Amino acid sequence: MKLATLHDGSRDGQLAVVARDLKTAHMADAIAPTLQAALDDWAFIAPQLDSLYAQLNRGEARRAFEFEPQRCMAPLPRACQWAEGTAWLHLLELLRRAQHGAQPAQGLAPLPDALREEPLLAQGAGDAFLGAHDDILLAHEEWGIDFGAGIAAIVDDVPMGATPDEAHGRIRLLMLANSVSLRQLMPAELSRGAGFLQSKPATAFSPVALTPDELGDAWRGGKVHLPLRATWNGHVAGQLHAGADMDFNFPQLIAHLCKSRRAGAGSIVGAGTVSNRDTTKGKAPPGHACIAERRALETIADGAASTPYMRFGDTIRIEMLDEAGKPVFGAIEQTVRKG
Amino acid sequence: MKLATLHDGSRDGQLAVVARDLKTAHMADAIAPTLQAALDDWAFIAPQLDSLYAQLNRGEARRAFEFEPQRCMAPLPRACQWAEGTAWLHLLELLRRAQHGAQPAQGLAPLPDALREEPLLAQGAGDAFLGAHDDILLAHEEWGIDFGAGIAAIVDDVPMGATPDEAHGRIRLLMLANSVSLRQLMPAELSRGAGFLQSKPATAFSPVALTPDELGDAWRGGKVHLPLRATWNGHVAGQLHAGADMDFNFPQLIAHLCKSRRAGAGSIVGAGTVSNRDTTKGKAPPGHACIAERRALETIADGAASTPYMRFGDTIRIEMLDEAGKPVFGAIEQTVRKG
Fold first, then answer.
1. Mind telling me how many Å the CA of A61 is from chain B's nearest CA?
2. ipTM score here?
3. Is A186 a member of any domain?
4. Percent share of chain B, pLDDT over 70
5. CATH number of the domain that A257 lies in?
6. What's the pLDDT score for residue A110?
7. pLDDT the model gives residue B103
8. Are B65 and B158 members of one domain?
C-alpha cells in the first residue's frame, strides 16, 4: 500500500492512504491518526490500512479525494531516528580520488578495506523533515548546497544483534529521499571526527511511502531495482539505476545499525546517494544523483571542479518510474531559497 | 516544576508532575498525555502543569501518590533529536594525551584550536532512551562499556541561525544523563569519520526533568552550578562540579546545532561527560564521570590503563545534590547486564 501524511496544521500531520496510481487518496485518521501511530502498532493497524487501500484502488472508498502531493508533509514529518548510510561506494571512491588528486603529495588513496567490509552509517536529526514540495531554506549559498537523490526505509522495532535476514523482515516502508548536504561545511566536520551536524540540514522525502510489496519483483535482495532520475533546474543530472552498484543492501545497513542497540519502530535508515559506474561505453552515461559526484569527476579529469553547487532559486526534482514509466512514489520537487 | 514519564505499557508513557521534594507525584494526563505533547504546545500547556505542580507542593493535589523513580521511563522516552556535545574539553585533552602518549612517534598533540573555538556535537539516536532504573543491556563486555555522567537540555523550537542568547530562552527542561559509550568500538568509528553509531548505545536519563527556574541561582550563564556524583559499584568514582571547567554552555551548544537548520521542540542536547581539572592540591581530587578519563590518566602516568571497563553486574549511580544536600533530579541507578 501507499501512505502519505497531509498537512493539517499539526506537527505530525494526518495519515492518508493513497491509490496505487497516485490520483486519489483517503484519510486514514479513523484507523490511525499519524504514520508514527500506525508504525507503533503495525501488526494491528496495517491490515486495516491495507483494506482501505484495496477499496480506494477499486474506486469504492466513500470519501476519496484528489491526491495533491503539494499538501504532503514528509510521510514521517519527524522520526525518533534518522541514520544514513553510504551504500554506493562508487561515490565515496570518486570523492576520495578527487580529494587526494588535488593533494598529489598524499597520492591516490584507494578505499580502505574497512569501508568495503562494513557499511558506513551516520546518525542524523529526525526532528524536522521536509515534505516533497517544501522549499530548502538556507542562509548562505557559500555553504555549498547539494542535493542527494536516494532511497530510505522505515523499520519496525529491530532487536539488538539482528541479522540482515531478520532486519529484512522488519522493513515496513520505502521512500525516496533528497538528502541535502552543505559540502563546504563538511571538511571541517569530518576533520573533527564527530560526524555530520551543520553540514546535513533537513532531509526531504517523497510524497508517498510504500510497502515493499508494491514494488513486486523490483524489490529483491534488499534493493530497489528501478531507475531513479534527478533533474536539476529542468535538466536531467542523473538517470540512474537504484539497484545497480549498491554495495550494501538495506538489510545489511539495518543490521549494522543494530549491532549494539535496538532500533525503535519508525526509525528511518537511508542508503545514501545513488551512484552508478559508467559502463555505457559511449552511450548516454548515467550521470549523477548529487553535484559532488560531478565535481569529483571534473576534478579528476581537469584538476578542478567547474560545476557550481546550487544557488538560491535552483530547483531539484527526484522521481522513480516503474517499468511502465509511471511514477511510483510521486516526485520530490524542491526549490532552494534564502531562509 | 518537575516532570516525569511513568510506564503505562505505551511507547511514550504517561506524563506526571513530581513534587519538588520528589516524594509525591500526580498524573498530568488531563493536561497533556505525554511530555512530547506538552513540548509541542509548551506556551499553552506549561502554565497548566505549573498550576498542578504548585497544588502538589502545597499538599493540595487531589490524587497525589507516592513517587517511585523505579516506575519512570526517560522523561522523553523517545525524541526526534538527540545531539551530544563535548562541553568539558578537559576530558578531550586527556583522551588525546593518553592516545598520543601511547604512540610516541606522533608526539603529544595539543587540542586543535578548532575544538576550542567551536563546540563539538555529534548526532545520536533518539528512538530508545532508558529510564533511570533500566538495565544497560549489551551483548559483550569486550565492547568496553563505560558510563558517562552529564546533563542534557530539552529545547522548544529553535529557529535556524539562533544566537546563544536566543537559544538560552528556548531551553525548557534539564535532566541528568548517563551517556553510555562502547569505548572499544570507538576508534574504528572515529577513523571512518562518520561519527558515533555502534559505539553509542541507548542513553539513560534521570527520573525527573525540571524547568531551569527550579535550580534558582545554580542555573546561571547557561550552566548548572551544582555538584554531580557518579558512584560505580558503590564507590564514588567522581564528585564533580558541573558548573566548573565547562568550556561551552548550553546556549552555545544549541546555537551551534542550529547554524544551518532549525531544531524541533523536544530535541535533546547533551553537554557530554562532566570533567573537572584537579585543582585540589593534595586534597580529595574530583575524580571522574567516566572510566575513560581514569584510564587516560593511568595511561599518561604509567604508560597503560589499569582500570577495566564495566562488567556484567556492575552498577552505576548518578545524582546531583543541591546546596542543602537534597537530590534534585532523582538518581540514575543502572546495572549492566548481558542482553
1. 32
2. 0.94
3. yes
4. 97
5. 3.90.850.10
6. 66
7. 47
8. no
Q: Which of B36, B71, B106 is the last residue of a domain?
A: B71
Residues B126 and B222 in one domain: yes
Question: Chain B contacts of A83, Cβ < 8 Å?
Answer: 125, 197
Q: Which residues of A touch B192 (CB under 8 A)?
A: 114-115, 120
Same domain? A178 vs A216: yes
Residue B114 domain-assigned (yes or no): yes
Q: Please check whether residues B254 and B320 belong to one and the same domain.
A: yes
The residue of B156, B158, B261 whose CB has the most chain A CBs within 10 angstroms, and thus the best one to mutate to test that interface, is B261
| Whether residue A272 sits in one domain with residue A157 | yes
Give the mean model confidence (pLDDT) for residues A259-267.
Answer: 97
pLDDT at A116 over 90: no
A106 shares a domain with A9: no
| Residue found by looking up cell 541507548 in the block | B202
**Structural domain includes residue B77:** no
Residue among B139, B202, B262 minimizing CB distance to A161: B139
Task: Give tens-digit pLDDT for B236-274.
Answer: 999 999 999 999 999 999 999 999 999 999 999 999 999
pLDDT at A101: 65
Statement to judge: residues A282 and A326 lie in one domain: yes
Q: How many domains does chain A divide into?
A: 2
pLDDT digits (tens, 9 = 90+) for B126-175: 999 999 999 999 999 999 999 999 999 999 999 999 999 999 999 999 99
Supply A144's cell numbers: 555549498
Interface size A-B, in CB pairs within 8 Å, comes to 146
Q: Are residues B160 and B60 in the same domain?
A: no
pLDDT of residue B109: 56
Domain containing residue B31: 2-71
Hey, what long-range contacts does A53-59 have (CB within 8 A, 24 or more apart)? A53/A1, A53/A2, A53/A17, A53/A19, A55/A26, A56/A17, A56/A18, A56/A19, A56/A24, A56/A25, A56/A26, A57/A19, A57/A20
pLDDT (mean) for A146-155: 98
Rounded CA Rg of chain B: 20
Q: Is the pLDDT of residue B106 over 50?
A: no
Show the 3-state SS of A207-254: CCEECHHHHHHHEECCEECCEEEEEECCEEEEEEECCCCCCCCHHHHH
Which residue of chain B comes nearest to A255, CA vs CA? B198
Residue A114 in any domain: the answer is yes
Of A71, A90, A108, the domain-final residue: A71
**Mean per-residue pLDDT for A113-119?**
86
- pTM of the entire predicted model: 0.96
Q: What is chain B's length? A: 339
Put simply, the answer to whether B198 touches A259 (Cβ < 8 Å) is yes
